[in-house]
Amino acid sequence: MTKPAASQQQANITFAFWTTPIRTKLTEQAVALFEKKYPNIHVTLEYEPWSNYWTKLATEAASGTLPDVMQMDASYLEQYVTNGSLLNLSDQHVIDLSQLSPQVVNMGKVNGSLYAIPVAVNTFCEILNPKIFKEAGIAVDPNKSYSWQQWFNIMVDVHKKLPSVYGTTDDVYQGAVLAYWARSHGQSLFTADGKSIGISKQVLASWFSYWLNLQEQGGCLPAQQTVSISPSAPPGYPLIKGEVAATYASIGQDGEIQTLLGSPIERMMFPGWASPSKPNILHPAMYWTIWSKTKYPQAAEELVNFLENNPQVAEIFKNDRGVIANQANRNLDAKKFGGLVAQQDEFMDKVEKVSSTVPLDPPQAGEIEGNLLETIGQEVIFKKLTPEQAAEQFIQQADQILKQGQ
Amino acid sequence: MRTTLNVTSSPGKRDNVAYVFLLPWLIGFVTLTLGPVLASFYFSLTNYDLLSAPRFIGVANFTNIFSDPYFWTSLKVTLTYVAISVPLRLIVALLVAALVNKPIRGMSIYRALIYLPSLLGGSVGTAIGWQALFSQNGPIDQALGLVGIRGPIWLGNPNTALLVIILMTVWQFGSEMVVFMAGMKQIPVHLYEASVIDGAGLWTRFTKITLPILTPIIFFNLVMGTINSFMVFTQVYVITDGGPLNATLVYVLYLYEQGFQYFHMGYAAALAVLLFILIAIFTGVFFLTSRWWVKYDLY
Questions:
Q1: Cβ contact, residue pair B50, A366, below 8 Å
Q2: In a domain, B83, yes or no
Q3: How many domains does chain B contain in total?
Q4: Which of A55, A180, A250, A330 could form a disulfide with A324 if both were Cys (CB 3.0 to 4.6 A apart)?
């Protein structure tokens, strides 16, 4: 039960989150509402863009000055739990979890205890430009579960019909799609204990072959164009410029892509989504966590509860942080706002129906899926390595990275 | 009894006053430069991920570095970059300095325009603009198209990506040029006049008078340029992020990835120590060999 006496004391808490200019404004509005409801709690905001956020947080952890409430990402969650930075929320009573499905709540558990409250769920998808498909005279049904081979043929077909356009962006070094490919073949990129690579050499080599062949036949962008996409370009840039008919994107980026493209897009799950191995996963977009050494645990929990469950906050945020985890608020938003929000929610509901839950990635996943996969993937598409050689090198080096981190 | 007023204080007290004036800079230097450098030396002997306390591991970082293929790649890329961009920039700066060192009307405007790029320096905005210049079917490609040349995908081709970075550095030759011009203004005109009487042509005057007298300044620009080149980062980070195929993976970028993306702080510190040693070696070699080609007091 909330203790009335404690919650009336003046509390000053810090709240940190990674952000974009839009998200900063939305969060300020939400926090202003919170402070009106809890006049005894003052919240100081700390925000950085993604790239700086983790360095800053790590520095604050090293100096023992972490913020009371922190936005947290799945790829860092385990690290911060292991070094004792996060408050164990298993026995708390302030934050209401009734509107989150048990599956979703489990995403915030590490070693069986709840350390993080999932804010929103995310997934990735193929974004299609229906105009190009129409121009090429190819009929594509975004609700159909194509096989990887069928999709291969469609992508090549686009290039045949429209020689200046390629089927898709080259996703050979998109870690999330590789993990999806592994699950499509009944395997997993990382072993359950996160200590070694779980995908077999054959399946990995087939992944590299798939994209190499696709490139050969014009089904995806040629290597030099793929690597010249600027790191600071908006998501889905080749699609926006009309160079491809389809691109990989995460669900939160679809609005921006549609706006920049200037015409409606379609969302489609990756090939083989209806297969029994359920390759789609529920991915937590982000969590709310609390510092284990906070001086105001009550106030911090009140803030988390407010951000997580208050319907007005849901109306302010909409899907900026991902599709809202709180089911009641998600439905409210979809009904009230329709349009993009409803489309994203609808797609998310579809994905959730065919998703499986998987353990969190090991902390070195960022380095492996980002740096290592990118280097080796590039060597494959530039034909410096055969798919088999690439698979062998990847597994060897990735296992080394995982071992070093232990 | 002294007849002159002894306004100045004794030598000892004079030194104290000097130190007082130096103190602000000294404090800044020790706390913001020297201190972190020493801390870096310490961290290079540890395993440190910022989240837990540093763990002493001796020279393990250094042995790992020598078997790290990306280290050697970044070393190769950086040395290539230095070897091409430093001489190229110096030559361009010297030649253009000679060209604009004339009292023609409007020359000061040209000089300012040429100097402008080096002011913009390694700024992010300039880098983004440079990247847009060399983008596929961007302005450079279009200009080449006008003369019938089909431009490569500058930033997608591993063979041309580093060239784009080098060109950006060379484009910023303005600061060296200004220093050269200052040096040229100091050359006594009578030397040139005498040589003309002796029948010296333009090239001879340049190589036998201008160059030898400028050697101390060339030396200065060479050393400064080399040190700065080894530390190139911003342009690469913004334009290519080390790609394609690690063709532009410069040393400091690799260091940054190790330290700030993967939190291998000890390893990154070890990389920094090695870079420090490398630059020190180059500078030492420059100074040692300078006695053979740098001439002071020629006139």
A1: no
A2: yes
A3: 1
A4: A330
The residue type of B257 is: E
pLDDT of A2 higher than 70? no
How many Cβ pairs within 8 Å bridge chains A and B? 68
d(CA B202, CA B211): 12
Structure tokens at A388: 């088999």
Q: Has residue A34 got a pLDDT over 90?
A: yes
Of B156, B238, B261, the CB nearest to A225: B156
What is the spatial distance between Cα A324 and Cα A311, in angstroms, rounded to a whole number?
A: 11
Is there a contact between B177 and B114 (Cβ–Cβ < 8 Å)? yes
**What pLDDT, on the 0 to 100 scale, is given for residue B2?**
54
A62 interaction partners in chain B (CB closer than 8 Å) = 50-51
**What H or E segment, with its residue span, contains residue A380?**
helix A373-381
Give the chain A residue whose CA is nearest to the CA of B54: A62
Domain locations in chain A as residue ranges: 4-120+282-351, 124-280+364-404
Q: Which helix (H) or strand (E) holds A290?
A: strand A283-290
B63 within domain boundaries = no
**How many angstroms separate the CA atoms of A5 and B269, rounded?**
50
What's this model's pTM, rounded to 2 decimal places?
Answer: 0.82
Contact A85 B155 (CB under 8 A): no
Residue B224 lies in a domain: yes
Which chain B residues touch A224 with a CB distance below 8 Å? 152-153, 156-157, 244
**Average pLDDT over every residue of B120-127:** 84
pLDDT at residue A150 tops 90: yes
Distance in angstroms (rounded) separating the CA atoms of residues A250 and A271: 16
> Using DSSP, how many helices (H) and how many strands (E) does chain B show?
15, 2
Q: Which residue of B has its CA nearest to A80?
A: B51
Interface pTM (ipTM) of the complex? 0.77
Distance between CA A155 and CA A128 in Å, rounded? 11
Q: Which residues of A touch B128 (CB under 8 A)?
A: 232
CA–CA min distance A387, chain B (Å): 16
Contacts B155 to A, Cβ<8 Å: 227-228, 230
Strand (E) positions, chain B? Answer: 46-47, 55-56
Q: Is the pLDDT of residue A405 over 80?
A: no
CATH topology of domain A124-280+364-404: D-Maltodextrin-Binding Protein; domain 2 (3.40.190)
Give the per-residue pLDDT at B65: 94
Q: How far apart are CA B249 and CA A199, in angstroms?
A: 29
The answer to the question of residue B55 being in a domain is no
> Tokens for B287?
């100074």
Q: Does B50 lie at the interface with A, CB-CB under 8 angstroms?
A: yes
Q: Looking at residue A355, what is its pLDDT?
A: 87
CATH number of the domain encompassing residue B238: 1.10.3720.10
Contact B156 A223 (CB under 8 A): yes
How many alpha carbons lie under 13 Å from residue A158 in its C-beta half-sphere? Answer: 31
Query: Does residue B243 belong to the interface with chain A, where contact is any CB pair within 8 Å?
Result: yes
> Are B51 and A59 inside 8 Å of each other by CB?
no
Contact yes or no for B86/B225 (Cβ under 8 A)? yes
Residues whose CB is less than 8 angstroms from the CB of residue B13 and which lie 6 or more positions away in sequence, other chains included: none
Alpha carbon of B228 to those of A34, B85, B86, B128, B218: distances in Å?
50, 11, 9, 20, 15
Residue B297 or B160, more confident: B160
Q: Is the confidence at residue A273, as pLDDT, over 80?
A: yes
Residues in chain A with CB shorter than 8 Å from the CB of B239 are: 230
Sheet holding A266-268, edge to edge: A166-168, A244-250, A124-128, A266-268
The topology (CATH level 3) of A4-120+282-351 is D-Maltodextrin-Binding Protein; domain 2 (3.40.190)
Tell whether B158 is within 8 A of chain A (Cβ). Answer: yes
User: Mean pLDDT of all residues in chain B?
Assistant: 90
Phi/psi for A123 (5° steps) reads -155, 170
